[in-house]
Design goal:
With 609 residues, this protein is an alpha/beta fold. Helices cover 21% and strands 22% of the residues. α3 packs parallel to α4. The structure holds 2-acetamido-2-deoxy-beta-D-glucopyranose (8 copies). One 2-acetamido-2-deoxy-beta-D-glucopyranose binds next to loops. It comes from Favolaschia claudopus.
Length: 609
């Protein structure tokens, strides 16, 4: 129902609308924020922002142009076949999301009859390009979450936070939730091809709370990819959840206890989530991955472990998030900004995992970065919520693909963090505000197109003599043949002098007469909102219904037949995805485009499904 309210531009308020999307057979009632775009008041010049972190408009100063100047005319000499060192085969779902369980009701929907339409659209954009999306619902808040009877949670809600006795650095209140959370997840999967991870609470092990295992299998079936066996166990003793000296073999012993308990409960652990446990999800805080492998975890439990996982953020911002003002440990975001604008940051972060990704291949198991983002404890103002993070996230994801990870889940927190790929409006404002799409969502979109839906894609971080850390380059291959090239330019140089000229050639084949190029762009690295991918945007704060806005622009770059090269320019800052053939391009257009247009909904009707 749309009504002309006295709120002027805020014409219609929030109602439940009935989805009538043509690709969808089930009719469900969904949460809908009204369609108008709102120029929401930002802080007046000089005023101090006092709202929540997710919408803080403060920007940083862009770093200077590197001096001396770096290599900008870059030869990219690809080979049509036989390139050594390509990654394992990757799926389009590589770039996934990790949604903190305690905010699942804000992000996914209020309950199974009130699903968030913008969320469906955001996922559909990725499914259209990549075929599917992986989402983990969990995090610290899963560790003491309790599945309770419907009657204990009032007002149609799916979860409540029990604020009695809040502990831990991230101060996540214990959760109580009901089965309808999983029903809602399953309904989302009926609408868009999302597959899910959940986690078994591990804080208390005598006995384990196992209700989630049965409920998740029953409700989600094959849409449940796996169940996480403990979140960041190498930090348990730090946070007082285990005694000092708690070791990888103690953790493995707890997994044995879980199996013993499930045997007494008559649960068949050769089926469902229990045959695809997600482990060990360590942070390299107290244990290295090798210490876990060497403890014999896979010898004992390998048959039930479906995914090997780690969780790593490059650094944390906990002092600012939870410390007192003036705390000397508080990091000035400006001082760490350059660390997010260099490829070397990714290679050094990932280097310690290369032995483990090789080990995972030997074990025949995928190795996943199960939770990550720009910085733990909410990220950094001006970094996590600016174009910096879009370039950083794309380079990081591509480098993980190159490094033989099989996926990376970027974390989504609540209103009080900076790093969200997408943020739903504050509950008390959802009547008139729309969603805010963050920079790492753009990384996800580009990554989805870079990898595409074949499940057969290989990635290679391309080395070039004298290449600087500001301009990483990736070759993307299908069946050993280069099909796309991704080029990132981290430099902020409005003069144009730092524009990259990528001179692409492919030995062993005739160059095409032209290539198609899509750009990820913003005016500066520190810009907030309004980034574009192929000229489409999700706008600024509160401006998105999850569908890209604007006309898609795909550039055609003519190649030089004599030289056998195609030269693609990449602005500073920016990123380009070059499609080396029409096949490489159309491949990503194979899936029927699907969105959930808010204009297609009928007036308010509560189906009560
Ligand atoms: C969802 O919440 C609405 C509004 O509170 C309520 O009317 C409806 O019954 C709830 N649906 C479910 C499945 O709980
Ligand atoms: C909230 O948590 C406290 C402490 O763990 C517990 O004693 C209490 O029963 C919980 N309240 C509800 C409503 O579950
Ligand atoms: C690689 O991992 C294996 C298995 O944990 C371990 O035995 C080996 O020492 C590791 N190698 C290096 C170089 O760390
Ligand atoms: C990834 O795995 C492939 C296949 O095993 C291997 O050739 C390549 O060197 C690995 N890449 C890295 C960065 O470890
Ligand atoms: C929403 O809640 C926040 C925090 O409680 C409050 O500061 C803000 O004024 C509220 N906004 C509206 C529109 O009620
Ligand atoms: C790729 O993998 C996904 C998830 O495993 C699967 O659903 C999809 O059908 C596969 N696509 C192709 C083209 O094989
Ligand atoms: C790399 O830089 C060095 C020093 O500036 C120069 O001598 C060399 O020719 C360069 N190599 C290439 C391939 O550009
Ligand atoms: C990019 O999109 C905007 C907004 O839709 C449109 O006005 C503009 O013409 C587009 N740019 C190009 C080059 O088509």
């Amino acid at each position: 129902m749309t009504s002309d309210s006295p709120l002027g531009p805020l014409r219609s308020l929030c109602f439940s609308f009935l989805i009538l999307a043509s690709t969808v057979h089930a009719a469900i009632t969904v949460h809908h924020q009204q369609e108008n775009q709102i120029a929401f008041a930002t802080t007046a010049p000089g005023a101090i922002y006092t709202g929540v972190a997710a919408y803080n408009p403060t920007t940083l100063a862009a770093p200077p142009v590197p001096s001396p100047a770096v290599l900008t005319t870059i030869p990219i000499n690809l080979q049509n076949e036989g390139t050594p060192g390509l990654s394992i085969k990757q799926k389009g779902s590589f770039f996934g999301f990790s949604i903190e369980m305690s905010v699942s009701n804000q992000v996914l929907g209020k309950n199974s009859s009130l699903i968030q339409v913008p969320f469906l659209n955001l996922m559909a954009n990725i499914v259209n390009r990549a075929g599917s999306v992986m989402i983990r619902v969990g995090g610290n808040s899963q560790e003491s979450a309790e599945l309770v009877d419907d009657s204990l949670i009032p007002d149609g809600r799916i979860l409540t936070k029990n604020l009695t006795g809040v502990t831990g650095t991230t101060q996540t209140p214990p959760l109580e939730y009901r089965r309808d959370l999983f029903v809602m997840m399953n309904k989302i999967s009926e609408l868009v091809n999302v597959h899910w991870f959940l986690g078994i609470p591990w804080r208390q092990t005598q006995p384990f709370a196992t209700a989630i295992i049965k409920a998740a299998d029953e409700i989600l079936g094959d849409r449940l990819l796996g169940l996480q066996a403990g979140n960041e166990p190498d930090q348990y003793s730090l946070h007082g959840h285990r005694p000092e000296g708690y070791s990888p073999s103690d953790y493995g012993g707890e997994m044995s206890d879980l199996f013993a308990q499930l045997a007494t409960e008559g649960l068949d652990v050769t089926k469902g989530g229990m045959k695809n446990l997600v482990s060990p999800s360590i942070t390299d805080f107290a244990w290295t991955p090798e210490q876990v492998w060497d403890s014999g975890l896979l010898d004992k439990h390998g048959a039930n472990i479906g995914y090997l996982t780690v969780e790593k953020y490059p650094r944390h911002n906990c002092a600012a998030m939870f410390g007192e003002p003036g705390n000397p440990d508080i990091i000035d975001p400006q001082s760490v900004l350059p660390l997010y604008l260099t490829h070397d940051a990714h290679t050094s972060l990932l280097q310690p995992y290369l032995n483990s990704t090789a080990f995972a291949q030997q074990q025949g198991k995928p190795f996943i970065m199960f939770e990550t983002n720009t910085a733990a404890c909410g990220g950094f103002l001006g970094i996590s919520d600016s174009f910096v993070a879009a370039l950083w996230g794309l380079d990081y994801a591509l480098q993980m693909a190159h490094s033989n990870f099989s996926g990376a889940m970027f974390h989504v927190g609540g209103q009080n963090v900076f790093y969200n790929p997408f943020t739903s409006p504050p509950t008390n404002q959802s009547a008139f505000h729309q969603w805010t799409v963050g920079p790492t969502y753009y990384s996800a979109l580009v990554m989805a197109e870079a990898i595409g839906p074949s499940n057969n894609t290989q990635v290679f971080n391309y080395g070039v003599d004298n290449l600087s850390s500001f301009t990483p380059i990736y070759g993307i291959y299908e069946n050993g043949t280069p099909v796309r090239v991704a080029i990132i330019n981290y430099i902020n140089d409005p003069s144009g002098a730092s524009t990259v000229h990528a001179v692409i050639s492919i030995a062993g084949t005739t160059m095409p007469s032209s290539v198609k190029v899509k750009y990820l762009l913003a005016d500066t690295v520190v810009q907030k909102g309004g980034y574009t991918w192929a000229n489409q945007t999700f706008g600024g704060n509160f401006e998105s219904d999850g569908r890209p806005m604007g006309e898609e622009v795909i550039r055609t770059v003519d190649c030089d037949a004599t030289a056998g090269t195609c030269t693609v320019d990449v602005p500073a800052p920016g990123a380009a995805l070059v499609f080396l053939s029409d096949d490489a391009f159309t491949e990503n257009k194979g899936a029927p485009a699907m969105t959930f247009p808010t204009t297609a909904y009928t007036k308010t009707r509560n189906t009560g499904m």
